[in-house]
Amino acid sequence: MASPTKQTLSPDVDFSVIEALAANVPDSPDTFTRLAAKNKLAVDFRQDGDLVEVTASETASISLSLFEHVEENGRTYHKYKEGKYTLPNDELEQNRLDLQHELCKMSLHGKLHLAPLKPENLKYTLDFGTGTGIWAIEMAETYPNCKVIGSDLSPIQPEFIPSNCSFEIDDMDDEWIYSQPFSYIHGRLLVFCFTDAISIFRKAYDALEPGGWFEMQDTCAPLGSIDGTIEGTPLLETYNLIAKTFLEKRGIDVTVASRFKSMMEEVGFVDVKEVKIEWPIGTWAKSAYHKRIGAWYQRDLKMATEGIMMGLFTRMLGWKKEQVDELLVKVLADMDDKSIHSYQPFYVVYGRKP
């Protein structure tokens, strides 16, 4: 299979902020934790609070491939195990996933992971729920002597990939059958996929070699605000409705990321570390770090919300597309309102198999 050196982005995409952050990558997870502690979430009350420029082009991305799908209300969804996953898999969603990848790296100051991996010990890596495969591809490029496998429900990954990277269609809930143990297993932003997270953690534990690392990165509900300004808004009420009325009925717990650490310890992982980062919704935050993240997460959440609401409200409430669109306008307006100081927690948790 051909192996070009790197994925390319559209010429008008300005990722200079990511490059600047990556140039100051902390030396260790402990260093990262100290750095994150300096960037406490606070409201920017300055009239010139938008001086940290955030352009639409910074959150642009590209679609990577064609795929089989089923269509509902103008969006397409996974064909494999149809109806199991809440979000679409179409071009809009692929764009969002690539944008989300940059958001996660920005949150970690340019890092792909926080687990303290040693290149000389890294032989096989698994990225389950790989999405467009962008993390797996960059991981393969970063560690050229490591074989990286990405798995997902849809074959939406690019055709041209590094020679040490491969993709497969698979469901994390099925039995994990691999011919070799992994040095590192990674999962990211899969909260809508989990109905039994600890069973996935056990599979990861069993699939790792002794000394191997497991890392999870995910958001956690509910949405919050540092001063209560989100209370009573269509944004909060809609997301509470989605969590309690729709997702809980499907066995999905959107608060599970806050328990990743205890779950890893219960399964048997040691040296378990947890890092919690607040993702603001919008540019209301004071620090340049949070302001930048907030702009990207606002764009990401807007794109995700349309797909989530359209799928769940039409399937489970029988709403028409026009009804969903009417509520969506109010929810998106709350995301734009800088007087609503909303955020969502983002957890990074990793541990080692003894």
Give an overview in words.
This protein is α/β, with parallel strands linked by helices and 354 residues long. The chain is built from nine helices and ten strands. Strands 3, 4, 5, 6, 7, 8, 9 and 10 form an eight-stranded mixed β-sheet that branches. A two-stranded antiparallel sheet has the order 1-2. Strand 1 and strand 2 form a beta hairpin. Residues 1-29, 51-68 and 78-85 have low confidence and may be disordered.
Shape: globular
- Which structural class is indicated by helix and strand composition? alpha/beta
Uncertain regions: pLDDT < 50 for 5+ in a row?
1-29, 51-68, 78-85
* Biggest sheet descriptor: 8 strands, mixed
Helix count, DSSP H or I runs of 4 or more residues: 9
Element-level helix/strand string: HHEEHEHEEEHEEHHEHHE
Q: How many β-strands, per DSSP? A: 10
The CA-CA distance between the termini, in Å, is: 36 Å
How confident overall, as mean pLDDT?
82
Helix content: 25-40%
Relative strand content: 15-25%
Instruction: Give Rg in angstroms.
Output: 20 Å
What topology does this entry show?
Layout (H helix, E strand, L loop, with lengths): L15 H7 L6 H10 L30 E4 L2 E4 L12 H17 L16 E5 L5 H9 L4 E6 L12 E5 L12 E7 L8 H11 E12 L4 E2 L8 H14 L12 H8 L2 E11 L7 H29 L4 H16 L5 E11 L2
Parallel strand pairs: 3-4, 3-6, 4-5, 6-7
Antiparallel strand pairs: 1-2, 7-10, 8-10, 9-10
Helix pairs in contact: 3-8, 5-7, 6-9, 8-9
GO molecular function: methyltransferase activity
Protein name: S-adenosyl-L-methionine-dependent methyltransferase
Pfam families: Methyltransf_23 (PF13489)
